[in-house]
Structure formats: C-alpha cells, structure tokens
Amino acid sequence: MNYDQIFDQAIERLHSEGRYRVFIDILRNKGAFPNARCFAGHNGPKPITVWCSNDYLAMGQHPKVVAAMEEALHDVGAGSGGTRNIGGNTHYHIELERELADLHGKEAALLFTSGYVSNDATLSTLAKLLPGCVIFSDALNHASMIAGIRNSGCEKKVWRHNDVEHLEALLAETDPSVPKLIAFESVYSMDGDVAPIHAICDLADKYNAITYIDEVHAVGMYGKRGGGISERDEAADRIHIIEGTLGKAFGVMGGYIAADQRIIDCVRSYAPGFIFTTSLSPVLVAGVLASVKHLKASSEEREGQQRAAASLKAMFRDAGLPVMDSVTHIVPLMVGDPVKAKKISDILLAEYGAYVQPINFPTVPRGTERLRFTPGPAHTEAMMRELTQALVEIWDRLEMRQAA
Ligand SMILES: Cc1ncc(COP(=O)(O)O)c(C=O)c1O
C-alpha cells in the first residue's frame, strides 16, 4: 500500500479541478477595518482591503469588545480551565447565555465552541432523543447541519431549497405518528436569500413538527436588537430552536442555541459535543458579551451594513457585472468556473490590493463558483468605486463580458 501516492493523487485531483485551496496570509489592522496587511509575495506585508470577512459589522475590533476582552484577560486569565461540568462554568458563560436567551425571547441558551459544533451537537442529540424521528432538511443547509443530521442516524428527507410546497409534500407522505423536525437556515450565506419562515412554521403547526433554524448569517444584523430574521419577521416565538454563531456579526468566536429550558437541559445533558470539551475561554465570552449588549442597543452598524450592501450591488449592476439576486447584506458575483474565480481573486489581490476569496465546490455547487463580497459599515463609497472599476477591468481583460 503506497499511502503517499494516495494522498498525492487526492491533492492532484483538487489542482486539476482548479479548487486547490490557498489560504491568504493576512493581519487585520485593529481600528482600521477593513484594512489589513497581506504577507503574500516577497516585498513584506502589503496593505489590502478585505471584502470577504464575516466579521460583518467590524465588531471584532469594536473598542467595547476589545476592552472587555482585555479586562477579562487581566481579571481571570486566558482559559476556562475545564468543561462546563468540571470547573469551566464561569460567570461570563452564565451571563452570556442569559443575554442570548433574552435576545431571542427564549427561556434559556447554551454556548458551544463554534456554530459548527452547535449545529452538529444539537441536531444529532435532539433527533436521537425523539424515537423514530424524521428530519426534513432544506437542500442548501450548511455542512454542520448535514453532519448533525447524519450523526443522529435518523431518516432524512431533503426538500428543494425554500420550496414549501415540496416540504409539505414530504411532510404529508410521512407517518403522522412519528416525531418530525424541520431544519433550515434564515439567511443562506452563499446566495443571500432568505427562508419563508412563517410558511415553514405554518407547516410545522399543521404536521406537528418541531422547528430548528440556523441564524448564523443573520444574528446581530437583522431585527431591532439583532435577534436575526426571526426577530425581524416576528417569528421567533414560532421556532423551537434558534442557533447562531458568535464568530461572524458578533465578531469573536463560539456558537449557541436558544430554546425552552427543557430542550436546553436535554442538549446540555446528552450532547457529547457540549459535554466532552473545554468551554470557551472567558476572554472570548467577555468579548461576545460586550458585542451582544452593544448590538442589542445600537442599530447604527446594521444600518451602515445595509447601506453599503445596497450601494455595492447597485455599482456592480450599473457596471454590467453579474451580481446575483440577493435580498441581504451578501453580494455574490457569479463566475461559474473555478479556475476563473481563482484567477480574478489572484489579480484583485496582486494588482489592486483587494481581497476576496473565490468560493468553490463543495461550498457551492460545481458550475456556480463565485466571488462573495461582504461590504460592511466601514467600507466607504470610494473603496466600492475602486473595487468596481478593478472588476470591470479584469472582466474585460479575461474577456468575460459575454458571460456576464
Ligand atoms: C450557515 C452556517 N451555519 C453554521 C456555520 C458554522 O459557524 P461557525 O463558523 O461559528 O462554526 C457556518 C459557518 O461558516 C454557516 O455558514
């Protein structure tokens, strides 16, 4: 058995399909978002503008967040020192869970080390607890939800993306007596579209299913207090479990669910992904706490982000660039080819100092490779004009106008 050869072939497949991943080496400049330094090339760090950060509202650099983390570090030190059950349950964790439960109008919340882990741990645990459960999963659900569903060992029925008629057909053909769980996202992060939450909840009521929503790309950014699309659409009380991340709009790291006390108690007590791991550093939790509190009270960042997204979409559209339909802050430009997407991204970085990562399979289906821009409150009109001009020049250089 030649192990080296097998691994080499696996890597070669990625190269030949144009989807070998290159991680860009950057340092962000605190207080100057979205400016950063890039360490590619040989001429020392070069200034760049970041267009693909999921620190959507620049909260990772917010003075309140940074100060809270510094204070926590100096007060209690770096790590939590244990699992939640054995020494790692700090007062910061308890306070943040209270804030998150309140954010979503739920009885309780539970922290995890990432959004990925929260989806995997919660879905696999809850579905296992429901005898004979059938899970109804939107076709574009995130890999972490798919992992949780697979790990539950339950039967899964996939409904066409955002197609409630198809969801109903699948619910209707299922034994009325078995437990049912409907899992979906609010904002789909690669296309920027939004789930019809009320229509899905109507079906959940009709077929007696419980509902699970991933609000990873919405918390902090939608709703009056940043409770997500479920807050904006006044649907939070119709959803059993709301899941979110602390690493995107809240700017730090971690994940969570919010639900009624009974559900939280079950996940807390049965989920290996919660039980058998060191809890989040109190430093991180303190930062998130400051971020969540700030975004509950301030809409300035949310409004700035929406304005920036609308401007960039309009500039791309006016310039004849193939901007995809998105009703959210996400601005995807369709390329449809992994090699070209990488090439555009490379030219943007090397020649224009603009950093946007190409998005390839398996994150998006093959043939829909794209560039995904996430303008935020700190991206200026001048930056957007420069970026649009650069893209037009590249599109012309690569003779992609027809494709556009
Ligand atoms: C829809 C969705 N859910 C969950 C996650 C995982 O969140 P985290 O990055 O906090 O692990 C992501 C991550 O990128 C995501 O896009």
Bound molecules: pyridoxal-5'-phosphate
Tally of distinct domains: 2
Q: Helicity range of the residues?
A: 40-55%
Strand content: 15-25%
Query: Structural class, please?
Result: alpha/beta
Instruction: Give the H and E element order.
Output: HEEEHHEHEHEHEEEHEHEEHHHHEHEEEH
Strand adjacency order, main sheet: 4-12-11-10-7-5-6
Overall number of strands: 16
CATH superfamily of the largest domain: Type I PLP-dependent aspartate aminotransferase-like (Major domain)
Overall mean pLDDT: 96
CATH first level of the largest domain: Alpha Beta
The end-to-end span amounts to 48 Å
What Rg, in angstroms, do the CA atoms define?
Answer: 22 Å
Indicate the overall shape. globular
* CATH fold call of the largest domain: Aspartate Aminotransferase, domain 2
Largest sheet data: 7 strands, mixed
**Number of helical segments?**
14
EC number: 2.3.1.37
Catalytic activity: succinyl-CoA + glycine + H(+) = 5-aminolevulinate + CO2 + CoA
Pathway: Porphyrin-containing compound metabolism; protoporphyrin-IX biosynthesis; 5-aminolevulinate from glycine: step 1/1
Cofactor: pyridoxal 5'-phosphate
